Amino acid sequence: MIINNLLTTNIQEALNSEKKINLFQKNRISQEKNYFNEFNLNKLNNENIFHINTIKSTCVDYRLRFLDIKYFKGEIPLEAIEKIKQMEIDHNKKLNSFKIMAPSIMFRLKKTDDPLLFIPIGSNYFYLIHKWGNDLAPLRKIRMWPFRSITNLLLTLLFLSYFVTLITPISIFTKNPDSSGFWILFLFMFKALVSIVLFLGVALGKNFNPKIWNSKYNKS
Question: Could you tell me if residue 84 is inside a domain?
Answer without folding.
Answer: yes
